[in-house]
């Protein structure tokens, strides 16, 4: 935690974010959706995808890189599949809209997939598999992009950037308020976490980045000074990163000049198409409880399943508030002043 920060109640922070988005030209329903997703990332313990990101969203709108009132549109549709264009609008809204579409189709077909193109930053991917799990579905979402000179990461065995962080996320219902949610970048750390580390003046974990001379570093400033992210798991993480690009390539976004491929892929699997939904959820919870009922190793207090840390964080921050680093709060205040919005407190 940085030395100086503002602690703000989650509801107040959500209202503030919504007011900023409205003032920037976002329709009320989209502003409400995006603000909820952004604040939920902070509540889940992932500030790299929370209000910190707003300081980048506002300039993107000003420069015309993001269209705040754009809505997603279906380009092509079949019974169990759809291609969606986000029209350079809010990525959070487009991703939630696309997952809802996948869920609706999965109700009819058992499994449904949606490709999403022309999007802006879509936030924390775990949000959308939680959405699927709440609807009684197993959800999958990936975001992949790669090509010559693209992103912060070199391929396994290479030295030049060619891949984004390319997250892979899957969630499943467990019959309670803590679904299974596995949400990870295929780099050791996501870009946003590097940015947050710099704002909080702290080091990165060893093995996360290299400097511009390809030497290991823990200093976030080295990453900004032409450094690179490291793919996790060697050749295995590298293969998974490429897989997200190939799934994303279903959008048709391919640029031959750099062999660049990109896109978001979403899938929903209706549990009820295979087993009674309640039975599956009970079995999933029992299975996970059995896994975590395991003697903790040295240095650990307990064993947890994916999704549990986020739910604990959510409960804690709903009660105590969300800590926003002073540097981020100052920049949010500057953005608010431009738009005539008053920050909470």
What would you say this structure looks like, in words?
With 345 residues, this protein is of the alpha+beta class. The protein has helices at 10-23, 28-43, 54-62, 91-109, 126-134, 191-199, 220-224, 235-248, 277-292, 308-320, 326-339; strands spanning 5-8, 73-78, 81-85, 111-117, 137-146, 168-172, 180-184, 209-210, 216-217, 228-229, 254-255, 260-270, 322-325. The strands form three sheets. Strands 2, 3, 4, 5, 6, 7, 11 and 12 form an eight-stranded mixed sheet that branches. A three-stranded antiparallel sheet has the order 9-8-10. Strands 1-13 form a two-stranded antiparallel sheet. The two termini are 21 Å apart. 49% of the residues are buried. The mean pLDDT is 96.
Oligomeric form:
single chain
Mean of residue pLDDT values: 96
> Would you identify the regions where 5 or more consecutive residues have pLDDT less than 50?
none
Give the topology string: H per helix, E per strand.
EHHHEEHEHEEEHEEHEHEEHHEH
Rg measurement, Å:
20 Å
The DSSP helix count reads 11
Give the total of beta strands. Answer: 13
Silhouette: globular
Largest sheet properties: 8 strands, mixed
Termini separation: 21 Å
Proportion of helical residues = 40-55%
Strand content: 15-25%
Question: Which structural class best describes the helix and strand composition?
Answer: alpha+beta
């Amino acid at each position: 935690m940085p030395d100086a920060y503002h602690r703000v109640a989650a509801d107040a922070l959500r209202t503030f974010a919504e007011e900023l988005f409205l003032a920037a030209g976002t329709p009320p329903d989209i502003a409400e959706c995006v603000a909820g997703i952004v604040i939920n990332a902070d509540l889940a313990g992932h500030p790299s995808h929370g209000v910190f990101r707003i300081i980048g969203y506002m300039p993107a709108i000003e420069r015309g890189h993001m269209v705040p009132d754009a809505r997603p549109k279906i380009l092509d549709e079949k019974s169990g599949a759809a291609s969606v264009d986000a029209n350079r609008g809010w990525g959070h809204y487009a991703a939630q809209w696309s997952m809802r579409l996948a869920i609706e189709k999965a109700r009819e077909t058992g499994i449904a997939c949606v490709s999403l193109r022309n999007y802006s930053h879509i936030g924390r991917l775990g949000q959308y598999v939680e959405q699927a799990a709440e609807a009684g579905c197993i959800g999958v979402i990936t975001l992949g992009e790669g090509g010559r000179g693209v992103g912060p990461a070199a391929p396994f065995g290479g030295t030049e950037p060619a891949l984004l962080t390319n997250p892979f996320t899957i969630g499943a219902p467990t019959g309670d308020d803590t679904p299974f949610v596995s949400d990870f970048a295929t780099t050791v750390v996501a870009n946003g976490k590097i940015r947050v580390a710099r704002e909080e003046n702290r080091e990165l974990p060893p093995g996360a980045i290299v400097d511009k001379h390809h030497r290991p570093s823990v200093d976030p400033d080295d990453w900004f000074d032409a450094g690179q992210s490291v793919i996790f798991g060697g050749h295995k993480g590298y293969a998974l990163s490429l897989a997200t690009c190939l799934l994303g390539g279903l959008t048709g976004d391919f640029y031959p000049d750099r062999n660049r491929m990109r896109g978001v892929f979403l899938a929903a699997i209706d549990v009820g198409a295979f087993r009674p939904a309640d039975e599956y959820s009970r079995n999933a919870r029992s299975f996970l409880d059995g896994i975590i009922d395991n003697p903790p190793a040295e240095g650990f207090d307990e064993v947890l399943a994916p999704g549990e840390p986020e739910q604990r964080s959510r409960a804690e921050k709903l009660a105590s508030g969300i800590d926003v680093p002073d540097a981020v709060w100052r920049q949010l205040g500057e953005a608010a002043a431009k738009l005539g919005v008053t920050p909470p407190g």
